[in-house]
Amino acid sequence: EAGVAQSPRYKIIEKRQSVAFWCNPISGHATLYWYQQILGQGPKLLIQFQNNGVVDDSQLPKDRFSAERLKGVDSTLKIQPAKLEDSAVYLCASSWTGNQPQHFGDGTRLSIL
Amino acid sequence: SQQGEEDPQALSIQEGENATMNCSYKTSINNLQWYRQNSGRGLVHLILIRSNEREKHSGRLRVTLDTSKKSSSLLITASRAADTASYFCATDERGSNYKLTFGKGTLLTVNP
After folding, report:
1. Which pLDDT does position B1 carry in this prediction?
2. Fold of B5-111
3. What count of Cα atoms within 13 Å lies in the side-chain half-sphere of residue A6?
4. Do residues A34 and A90 touch, judged by C-beta distance below 8 A?
5. How high does pLDDT run on average in chain A?
6. Phi and psi for A16 in degrees, rounded to 5?
7. How far apart are CA A73 and CA A94, in angstroms?
8. Shortest CB distance from B100 goes to which of A55, A102, A106?
9. Do B42 and A93 lie within an 8 Å CB cutoff?
């Protein structure tokens, strides 16, 4: 089966600019996750979708981050405006349900200048 | 906040040796999972152990879970250079809708 696809792989922007990441999960996976991974740390969950509904977004900085999952398939994560502290790898993952192992994409490495 | 904490933070061994990594967590959980991450790549699921299980095997991997001590260990036997990676434990707290919380990971280096 095809894995989780993410794009772009790398992005460099200046602070206060906006950026968007795209994720295509494994076909049939109902649950989709966005994580932020800062260098040297484990991933931190930003938002979890079940189909196209939000299950958990308690750690999403909603003043600058937004995410959507239209039609319960692809998803986009947006940051506007970006801050220096947003420099990280943004990982997308998917699973059949919330109680199953997660499959990760290779992430987008974001650098803020 | 991080729930699982791995120990040690870094581990360097020779090919053929066994590697043991430990994970401690703070709350009651449904499941505990171990993931591997190669440099510049996404995480790969290794093993899931449920809270009512004590030990699980998969190939050269052995995972134990002690819910009374809130700890788990991952043993990799007969390590290979290709096992070089970061290893993370992740827990989902009861009542959390299976939200995973990851530790900071153990960086394993296997020298040929």
Report:
1. 47
2. Immunoglobulin-like (2.60.40)
3. 27
4. yes
5. 95
6. 80, -10
7. 10
8. A102
9. yes
